[in-house]
């Protein structure tokens, strides 16, 4: 695309226009996807509880999210009188922006990536570590008890699980030999027995895939780990004082992050845009469909867990992060690097 | 063109937010300005092609250190009047620091523009086309291995020291013992007795 525009506009302007179009091509469908995924989440949750879920607005209730969006858009933004005005308004914007930023390096198909950078995985780690600021600032700027408790919980939770996520990523990077996300996907081609694609089918990396799935739920605050908005303890957590669009931005950012984590699960362990098996007819299906299919599968798994598993207690959450996942993933780095030294590089 | 615009944008924001870090009345705002300044410094690193350093800067400083910093500052019981009184008191010291730092920078830049010190061939040039991380990794794990390991050892000692200093064993707590809970079976916990009416029962 850059080459196409560079033909007409010269390199600089062409690059600029192409990048802007690329950003819109990712961000706008992502917004639509978030709206539909909220609907899907509610439907899955309802089905598991033997309810109908949203079924009034539009056919099968498909337009429910848009109706909610319109309603929220038309309401008044209320700022508490003792809140810190500027930070109170910036916090949801940070959450939302950060949720969109990370998608810049996600490869949707062979060559379909906005920024094919060498340090793609580190970029994602860096951006996802920024996500906590939106929540901390919201909690502090609200100047209210429960949001502040929630902010402190969120900060501790995210920092704890980022540690084990980091170690899991190291094992993947060791095996793939690159930080580039497209490179990581390519390294999974015909990974097992020469025809199965995906690191998760590797017995040495499968435990890390499980750790990553659970950690990614904790990182985004999905239900077994949603202590930041535990309604029986903290009203609505950091969102308590928010209304109208500022609330909607939190909502969008949260689901954007969930989708991002599903995409990361697909890319790091399940072969991204590669079909599950390295067999020529399967490549006739464009890679983007495999990728979206995997994202939706992981989203279903997360909704399934949300519908079935009760919320963790806070000390249990911390125990899982620091006493179980951290030692396991740290040990696995030694295991994986030792195995690679023996087999790939020679001692 | 775009690079120049980006450079001036990042550089201005670094300086402006660093200045606002000092000037801001509210310590929480100060920390936030500091974070913005870290972030823009990372942007500058990307511009010069040191993308690995840039990402590390964001992950370590913005993602971890500044969060803890923000945490501490938010918990503080701040007396704004006292803070403002301190401002004038520390001003001479601050001015002195600024003078020393700017003198050093002027010396460094003028020495550099005069030709600099001729480096011996000790620093191996990075071959073209090798990614940042690989170039850095090869240097750290071959040439500077012992220094790197030494730094790691110092960090390890610091970590153990911090744990030893803050760890305390409290008596009277009843922490959850998960393996004990999992091992527990109904026959250990439940007792079926045939209780005669009108008599006491041992528990």
UniProtKB/TrEMBL annotation, chain A:
<feature type="transmembrane region" description="Helical">
    <location>
        <begin position="121"/>
        <end position="142"/>
    </location>
</feature>
<feature type="transmembrane region" description="Helical">
    <location>
        <begin position="15"/>
        <end position="40"/>
    </location>
</feature>
<keyword id="KW-0874">Quinone</keyword>
<dbReference type="GO" id="GO:0048038">
    <property type="term" value="F:quinone binding"/>
</dbReference>
<keyword id="KW-1278">Translocase</keyword>
<keyword id="KW-1133">Transmembrane helix</keyword>
<dbReference type="GO" id="GO:0016655">
    <property type="term" value="F:oxidoreductase activity, acting on NAD(P)H, quinone or similar compound as acceptor"/>
</dbReference>
<keyword id="KW-0560">Oxidoreductase</keyword>
<protein>
    <recommendedName>
        <fullName>NADH-quinone oxidoreductase subunit H</fullName>
        <ecNumber>7.1.1.-</ecNumber>
    </recommendedName>
</protein>
<feature type="transmembrane region" description="Helical">
    <location>
        <begin position="87"/>
        <end position="109"/>
    </location>
</feature>
<dbReference type="GO" id="GO:0003954">
    <property type="term" value="F:NADH dehydrogenase activity"/>
</dbReference>
<keyword id="KW-0830">Ubiquinone</keyword>
<dbReference type="Pfam" id="PF00146">
    <property type="entry name" value="NADHdh"/>
</dbReference>
<comment type="similarity">
    <text>Belongs to the complex I subunit 1 family.</text>
</comment>
<dbReference type="InterPro" id="IPR018086">
    <property type="entry name" value="NADH_UbQ_OxRdtase_su1_CS"/>
</dbReference>
<feature type="transmembrane region" description="Helical">
    <location>
        <begin position="324"/>
        <end position="342"/>
    </location>
</feature>
<comment type="subunit">
    <text>NDH-1 is composed of 14 different subunits. Subunits NuoA, H, J, K, L, M, N constitute the membrane sector of the complex.</text>
</comment>
<feature type="transmembrane region" description="Helical">
    <location>
        <begin position="163"/>
        <end position="185"/>
    </location>
</feature>
<dbReference type="InterPro" id="IPR001694">
    <property type="entry name" value="NADH_UbQ_OxRdtase_su1/FPO"/>
</dbReference>
<comment type="function">
    <text>NDH-1 shuttles electrons from NADH, via FMN and iron-sulfur (Fe-S) centers, to quinones in the respiratory chain. The immediate electron acceptor for the enzyme in this species is believed to be ubiquinone. Couples the redox reaction to proton translocation (for every two electrons transferred, four hydrogen ions are translocated across the cytoplasmic membrane), and thus conserves the redox energy in a proton gradient. This subunit may bind ubiquinone.</text>
</comment>
<feature type="transmembrane region" description="Helical">
    <location>
        <begin position="282"/>
        <end position="304"/>
    </location>
</feature>
<keyword id="KW-1003">Cell membrane</keyword>
TrEMBL record, chain B:
<keyword id="KW-1133">Transmembrane helix</keyword>
<protein>
    <recommendedName>
        <fullName>NADH-quinone oxidoreductase subunit J</fullName>
        <ecNumber>7.1.1.-</ecNumber>
    </recommendedName>
</protein>
<dbReference type="GO" id="GO:0008137">
    <property type="term" value="F:NADH dehydrogenase (ubiquinone) activity"/>
</dbReference>
<dbReference type="GO" id="GO:0005886">
    <property type="term" value="C:plasma membrane"/>
</dbReference>
<comment type="similarity">
    <text>Belongs to the complex I subunit 6 family.</text>
</comment>
<keyword id="KW-0472">Membrane</keyword>
<keyword id="KW-0812">Transmembrane</keyword>
<comment type="function">
    <text>NDH-1 shuttles electrons from NADH, via FMN and iron-sulfur (Fe-S) centers, to quinones in the respiratory chain. Couples the redox reaction to proton translocation (for every two electrons transferred, four hydrogen ions are translocated across the cytoplasmic membrane), and thus conserves the redox energy in a proton gradient.</text>
</comment>
<dbReference type="GO" id="GO:0048038">
    <property type="term" value="F:quinone binding"/>
</dbReference>
<dbReference type="InterPro" id="IPR042106">
    <property type="entry name" value="Nuo/plastoQ_OxRdtase_6_NuoJ"/>
</dbReference>
<keyword id="KW-0874">Quinone</keyword>
<dbReference type="GO" id="GO:0016491">
    <property type="term" value="F:oxidoreductase activity"/>
</dbReference>
<feature type="transmembrane region" description="Helical">
    <location>
        <begin position="6"/>
        <end position="24"/>
    </location>
</feature>
<feature type="transmembrane region" description="Helical">
    <location>
        <begin position="90"/>
        <end position="112"/>
    </location>
</feature>
<keyword id="KW-0560">Oxidoreductase</keyword>
<dbReference type="Pfam" id="PF00499">
    <property type="entry name" value="Oxidored_q3"/>
</dbReference>
<dbReference type="InterPro" id="IPR001457">
    <property type="entry name" value="NADH_UbQ/plastoQ_OxRdtase_su6"/>
</dbReference>
<feature type="transmembrane region" description="Helical">
    <location>
        <begin position="144"/>
        <end position="165"/>
    </location>
</feature>
<feature type="transmembrane region" description="Helical">
    <location>
        <begin position="56"/>
        <end position="78"/>
    </location>
</feature>
<keyword id="KW-1003">Cell membrane</keyword>
<keyword id="KW-0520">NAD</keyword>
<feature type="transmembrane region" description="Helical">
    <location>
        <begin position="31"/>
        <end position="50"/>
    </location>
</feature>
């Amino acid at each position: 695309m850059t080459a196409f525009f560079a033909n007409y506009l010269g390199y600089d302007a062409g690059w600029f226009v192409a990048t802007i179009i690329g950003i819109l091509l990712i961000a706008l469908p992502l917004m639509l996807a978030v709206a539909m995924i909220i609907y899907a989440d509610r439907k899955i949750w309802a089905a598991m509880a033997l309810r109908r879920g949203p079924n009034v607005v539009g056919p099968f209730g498909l337009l429910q999210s848009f109706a909610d969006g319109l309603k929220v858009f038309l309401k008044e933004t209320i700022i508490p009188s003792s809140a810190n005005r500027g930070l109170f308004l910036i916090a949801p914007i940070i959450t939302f922006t950060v949720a969109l930023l990370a998608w810049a390096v996600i490869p949707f198909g062979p060559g379909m990536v906005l920024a094919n950078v060498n340090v793609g995985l580190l970029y994602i780690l860096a951006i996802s570590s920024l996500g906590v600021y939106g929540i901390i600032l919201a909690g502090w700027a609200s100047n209210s008890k429960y949001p502040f408790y929630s902010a402190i919980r969120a900060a501790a939770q995210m920092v704890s699980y980022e540690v084990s996520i980091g170690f899991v990523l190291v094992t993947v990077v060791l095996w793939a030999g690159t930080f580039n996300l497209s490179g990581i996907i390519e390294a999974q081609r015909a990974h097992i027995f020469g025809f199965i694609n995906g690191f998760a089918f590797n017995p040495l990396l499968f435990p890390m895939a499980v750790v990553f799935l659970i950690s990614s739920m904790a990182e985004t605050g999905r239900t077994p780990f949603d202590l930041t908005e535990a309604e029986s303890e903290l009203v609505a957590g950091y969102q308590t004082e928010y209304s109208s669009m500022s609330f909607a931005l939190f909502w969008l950012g949260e689901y954007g992050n969930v989708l991002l984590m599903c995409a990361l699960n697909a890319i790091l362990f399940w072969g991204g845009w590669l079909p599950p098996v390295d067999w020529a007819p399967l490549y006739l299906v464009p890679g983007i469909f495999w990728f979206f299919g995997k994202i939706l599968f992981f989203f279903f798994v997360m909704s399934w867990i949300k519908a079935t598993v009760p919320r963790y207690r806070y000390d249990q959450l911390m125990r899982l992060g620091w006493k179980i996942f951290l030692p396991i993933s740290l040990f696995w780095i030694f295991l994986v690097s030792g195995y690679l030294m023996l087999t790939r590089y020679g001692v | 063109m775009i690079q120049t615009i980006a450079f001036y944008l990042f550089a201005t924001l670094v300086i402006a937010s660093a200045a606002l870090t000092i000037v801001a009345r509210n310590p929480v705002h100060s920390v936030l300005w500091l974070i913005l300044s870290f972030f823009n410094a990372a942007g500058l690193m990307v511009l010069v092609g040191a993308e690995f350093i840039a990402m590390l800067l964001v992950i370590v400083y913005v993602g971890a250190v500044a969060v803890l910093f923000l945490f501490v500052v938010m918990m503080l019981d701040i007396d704004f009047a006292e803070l403002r009184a301190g401002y004038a008191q520390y001003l001479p010291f601050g001015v002195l620091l600024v003078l020393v730092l700017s003198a050093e920078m002027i010396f460094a830049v003028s020495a550099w523009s005069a030709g600099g010190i001729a480096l011996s061939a000790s620093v191996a040039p990075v071959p073209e086309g090798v990614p940042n991380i690989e170039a850095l990794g090869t240097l750290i794990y071959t040439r500077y291995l012992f220094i790197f390991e030494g730094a790691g050892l110092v960090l390890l000692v610091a970590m153990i020291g911090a744990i030893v200093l803050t760890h305390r064993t409290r008596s009277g707590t009843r922490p959850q013992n998960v393996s004990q809970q999992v091992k527990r079976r109904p026959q250990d916990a439940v007792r079926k007795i045939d209780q005669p009416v009108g008599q006491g029962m041992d528990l």
